[in-house]
Design brief:
By secondary structure, the protein is an alpha+beta fold. Helix content is 18%, strand content 36%. The termini are far apart. The chain binds flavin mononucleotide. Flavin mononucleotide binds next to strand 2, helix 2 and helix 3.
Length: 177
């Protein structure tokens, strides 16, 4: 038997993972925000569409600088990731307050995050959907990965502080890239 699910809970079924951290920098001051509403739009160069609320300080920064780093954290730093979402860069210097390490990127002013498994340096490709949906489309300029991390256990938001942790990997013959 199926039961009706409240429309307010639908996002928890489809909310894509992994949760990422959007790193940005304005006037030399770096900031971070967790984000789970994102999707791939193209393979190469990689394009990523992201919902960044215009209530967030990050929105002002990335619209002004047209740059960010999308960093992919793993379960080991999950509490720090959530802490970045419980305060604003308007009030808190999150890198130092939360204990994450900024590292200079090569093509953008926003810093990479040392503790993250992967870091994607991005430039703003298209902001035409920003006004209506707060969707910004980013083009990845350079991608970094930590070669020592063999099975990165990314975190996937289910809503209200609940996360699924990536686990087993399986391979199935597929024509899909
Ligand atoms: C797990 C998680 C996922 C989030 N996903 C998004 C998102 O996709 N888009 C968004 O605008 N805010 C999202 N947020 C909320 C922002 O991260 C939060 O408002 C943050 O404090 C904004 O920081 P800022 O003002 O320094 O930019 C998320 C928060 C958490 C904890």
């Amino acid at each position: 038997m199926k039961r009706v699910l409240s429309l307010s809970k639908v996002y928890g079924l489809l909310e894509p993972g992994p949760v990422v951290l959007v790193s940005s920098s304005r006037h030399g001051v770096p900031n971070l925000m967790p984000m789970s509403w994102h999707m791939m739009v193209d393979f190469e160069p990689p394009l990523i569409a992201c919902v960044i609320s215009n209530r967030n300080y990050t929105f002002d920064t990335v619209c002004a600088t047209r740059e960010c780093v999308i960093a992919i954290p793993t379960v080991e730093i999950a509490k720090k990731v959530v802490a970045c979402g419980n305060c604003s860069g308007r009030d808190v210097a999150k890198f130092s307050a939360i204990g994450l390490t900024p590292v200079a990127a090569s093509t953008v002013g926003a810093p990479l995050i040392a503790e993250c498994y992967a870091n994607l340096e991005c430039k703003l490709e298209d902001s035409r959907t920003a006004k209506r949906y707060e969707i910004l489309v980013w083009q990845v300029q350079k991608a970094w990965i930590d070669p020592k991390r063999k099975n990165p256990r990314t975190i996937h938001h289910l809503g209200y502080g609940k996360f699924m942790v990536a686990g087993r990997t399986i391979q199935i013959a597929s024509r899909m890239r």
